[in-house]
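ingest -> validate -> predict -> emit
validate: passed (alphabet ok, no gaps, 189 aa)
predict: started
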Amino acid sequence: MDKNRCHWVSDENIYKEYHDNEWGIPVYDDETLFEFLTLEGFQAGLSWITILKKRENFRKAFDNFDYKKIAEYDEAKYEELLQNEGIIRNKLKIKAAITNAKAYMEVQKEFGSFSKYIWAFVEHKPIQNHFKSSKEVPAKTELSDKISKDLKKRGFKFVGSTIVYAHMQATGMVNDHTTDCFRHKEVQE
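emit:
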């Protein structure tokens, strides 16, 4: 018998793997946080499964999400990315990834790490939600509004409140596994 998962998980193995092994697990390392922030930005207006299926292509195209390298991308690299059929070829999203890499390093300079900065919004401890159904799970919150506003002030792009909340869910800042999902209790431990 298959495990009971959150409503959004389809039968596709890539989705199950992501849900079971990544989504909602607290992430504190800056490299992974940048990868998620970048992927969430590219996901805007698209389904997450689309991003998951292209994730390896994104890793190759964006130097394994090495923000130090991405911050140095020139016009030639930008044009190369626009031609890469393995990723989402959206001009604004590609430019945003480069802009965000630069802003990311500025945050690191100010706070010591992006992790310290972003986790301070939840007092360095995941918010434990207890939603019974997917209908209760918000697309954004007052807190994601606040973080979004602060990121934008720091020069980040494609960091609207909905994207920020998805980032919070993915990186375990909030536990939004529904209570009937087998992962709900597991990510609390």
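The radius of gyration is 16 Å.
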